[in-house]
């Protein structure tokens, strides 16, 4: 087998291996680029409900809290409560969610945070927060991308092989991060 045939075979097979990881890294990269627009980990949902007979604001007890939570069907134990005003009770839960109970009317409002499990997991992969095995896989992927780039330079031969234009574009690709560094100063 000559070196060009070997080069094409390596380029093809490494390309197939890298295709799936490239899609994951590209999607999660877009998510990370837009963290200021939305949170890929959590989805905020507004809550609106009504409790039948809220206790008077001045005589609120722990039993009243348990009854309100039972009436709302809330099974999670709150991590704290706080009277935002003499008539509004805030109930806090893990994960940053809360319920606000207007005691004179019995109206309940608030927010629930629901985890976006798949996006959160993919984001954790991109940020390398899932463990040592992923670190090794990410390093192997980076090495495979380098191999893919280098073998790609020599897939075509003759006048269709690496040209001045191809060399110039390759150098431009190497220069872009340096230009960005200089521009950011």
Blueprint (SSEs and pairs):
Blueprint: H1 3-33, E1 42-50, H2 62-72, E2 80-85, E3 88-92, E4 98-102, E5 107-115, H3 117-126, H4 132-152, H5 164-183
Antiparallel strand pairs: 1-5, 2-3, 3-4, 4-5
Helix pairs in contact: 1-3, 1-4
Task: Report the major sheet.
Answer: 5 strands, antiparallel
**What global shape is seen?**
elongated
Number of DSSP-assigned strands: 5
Total count of helical runs of at least 4 residues: 5
H/E element sequence: HEHEEEEHHH
Look at the helices and sheets and give the structural class: alpha+beta
Instruction: Please compute the radius of gyration using only Cα atoms.
Output: 28 Å
Percent in strands: 15-25%
Task: Describe the strand arrangement of the main beta sheet, using strand numbers.
Answer: 1-5-4-3-2
Into which percent range does the helicity of residues fall? 40-55%
N/C terminus separation: 50 Å
List keywords for this structure.
elongated, alpha+beta, 185 residues, five-stranded antiparallel β-sheet
Describe the structure.
The chain is α+β, with helices and mostly antiparallel strands and about 180 residues long. The protein has helices at about 5-35, 60-70, 115-125, 130-150, 165-185, and strands spanning about 40-50, 80-85, 90, 100, 105-115. Strand 4 and strand 5 (about 105-115) form a beta hairpin. Helix 1 (about 5-35) crosses helix 3 (about 115-125) and helix 1 (about 5-35) packs across helix 4 (about 130-150). The two termini are about 50 Å apart.
């Amino acid at each position: 087998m000559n070196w060009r045939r070997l080069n094409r075979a390596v380029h093809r097979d490494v390309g197939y291996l890298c295709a799936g990881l490239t899609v994951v890294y590209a999607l999660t990269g877009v998510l990370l680029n837009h963290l200021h627009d939305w949170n890929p980990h959590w989805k905020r949902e507004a809550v609106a409900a009504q409790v039948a007979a809220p206790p008077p604001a001045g005589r609120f007890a722990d039993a009243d809290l348990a009854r309100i939570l039972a009436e709302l069907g809330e099974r999670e134990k709150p991590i704290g409560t706080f009277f935002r005003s003499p008539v509004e009770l805030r109930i806090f839960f893990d994960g940053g969610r809360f319920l606000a109970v207007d005691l004179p009317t019995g109206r309940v409002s608030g927010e629930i945070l629901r985890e976006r499990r798949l996006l959160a997991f993919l984001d954790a992969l991109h940020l390398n927060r899932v463990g040592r095995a992923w670190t090794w896989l990410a390093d192997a992927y980076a090495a495979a991308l380098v191999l893919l780039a280098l073998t790609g330079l020599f897939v075509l031969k003759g006048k269709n092989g690496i040209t001045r234009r191809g060399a110039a574009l390759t150098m431009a690709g190497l220069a872009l991060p340096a230009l960005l560094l200089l521009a950011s100063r």
